[in-house]
Design a protein that fits this description.
CATH architecture of the largest domain: 2-Layer Sandwich
Largest sheet: 6 strands, mixed
CATH class of the largest domain: Alpha Beta
Strand order of the largest sheet: 15-14-18-19-21-20
Radius of gyration: 27 Å
Length: 487
Amino acid sequence: MILKPDSYWQGVLRELLALPAETEWVEFKTNRIKPDDLGEYISALSNGAALCGKQNAYLVWGVDDETHDIIGTDFKPATDKRGGQELESWLLQKLTPRIHFYFKTIECDDKPVVILEIAKAVHTPVQFSSTEFIRVGSYKKKLKDFPEKERALWRAFDNTPFEEQLALENVDGQKVLAVLDYPAYFELMEQPLPDNRAGILEKLKQDMLIQPDKAGNWDITNLGALLFAKDLEQFKKLRRKAIRVVIYKGVNRLETIREQIGGKGYANGFEGLIAFINTFVPRNEVMGKALRKDVPMFPDLAVRELVANALIHQDLFMTGTSPMVEIFEDRMEITNPGVPLVDPSRFLDSPPRSRNEAMASLLRRVGICEERGSGIDKAVAQTEVYQLPAPLFETKDESTIAVLFGHKDWSDMDQADRARACYQHACLKWVERSQMTNASLRERFGIEAKNSAAISRVIRDALSAGLIRPFDASQGRRNAKYIPSWA
């Protein structure tokens, strides 16, 4: 298990103490309670967390439930037993399904506090001793006595994230290791490979790639299959989620040179995917100080960020479509199913909103993406460094499209190309807590100072289009600064 630092638990405690009262997913106790009561609380709180859309529920000992004052506790879960059996082991046997929970003892104001973190119910209500419980306000009740709560809970399961749903059910450990690329998981996570099957399966379970089923075997989640499948064809529900790469002759779709459908998962296959794309990216010949050399038409970092972005932000519930990369002589189009959660014009500045949170989190941990939302920023910044036309972000037919353009001379750029570049440059400056100027935009386009009038025309066009505005309404034309219109 990946241990969370004490600072995490201190932060959890602060958040819970700030709540005005106990909720369907939080309970405060002072000292030890009977093991059977504890099991019922775990069931009720886990189901309550699912009903309230929370990832975890919490039971805290050592806190007054009315004042939320820290009073300390004598409860010691590590030494507590039920009928001679360790408490945690006994609880696991009585809970169906076997959800994850974890006891943590910390010191707060020099007093012991115990926090029990309980995973939310997924797919089905959690039972204790074959009975389902729920929280009604701050009280623990049997779920069957509250049919409206039961209906609402099942509706919540219908909204279970795609990653948590099951790709393959009731398989043994050998089958799990046969279809998932577990060596790639440990390599990407920079963790040593356990020397036994049980240790490998436990690690995969901790990251929700697999989960134990009621029959004593394993279920492979969509998250596990999508990220680490050896071959997505082995998962019928996910075959159409494999990314497609299509290479065309010329600038249209009339003639296809090659089409490739990815077979591996997104995480274990990412480097191979990028290498394949770069093999077919057109190359430009540029003159260095002494020699001519071939360079890819599109910056590698921009390609990586936009492809990762397409995988992470796709709408996984959409059927009959998949992420796609299309390579033309003059551009690359990267498409993912689903309209974005933010306006495409605000991709550069909006706080990150991951449609698929579990996938985004794990891909961030293995270094494929950044959850902070800086991927688009990096891609746009790279096009500026290479003085390429600004990328285009748009929605079409319930899909999101990012377009990278090959090099264009200044004279070949139309008004829309220049205005879009101007706007994105202003956005980049804004997120850097700076402002765009004529000089900074000249540098972005590679225009000499003697041609500053041409840049002034671009700025005027962007102002007229409502894309940017003056930083200071009273500023003069000389040394004027500009920011995005929404800033």
